[in-house]
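User: Teach me something about this protein's shape.
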Amino acid sequence: MKILNALKSLKFIFMPHYWVLNNRYSRQLDKIVLEIIDKNLIVSTTEYWAKLGNGNSLWISNYPYGYATPTIKGDWDIENRLNVRPSRLTMHRLHRHLRKFEEYTLTKTQRADKKILKDFNIY
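Assistant: First, the predicted structure itself:
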């Protein structure tokens, strides 16, 4: 599994927007975010936050630079953000997971509107 993840991580060499990230890597946070993805613990999302069932939240606004930095017990204040981040591969997985989550939570009308915009190359 470690070798597979190492091979998957090689793709980030060719993605310049992943070269410079805001916070330092945390192995502990990496494991927590992978657990969030695997157990689907995200309750809701906004433009800036992914809210978890336990009251905590993840900052998701500026992908990938400061992506997936956690806050403590639902405080939406920037001062309570921790200055750590998961691995690039985990951030990429979380981003894909959140896109699927947002697609799943759209209403029928929103899906139809999105399809119309996509047909006209607006979205």
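Now, about its shape. The chain has one domain: 2-119. The first helix runs from residue 2 to 9. If you'd like, I can walk through any region in more detail.
User: That's plenty for now, thanks!
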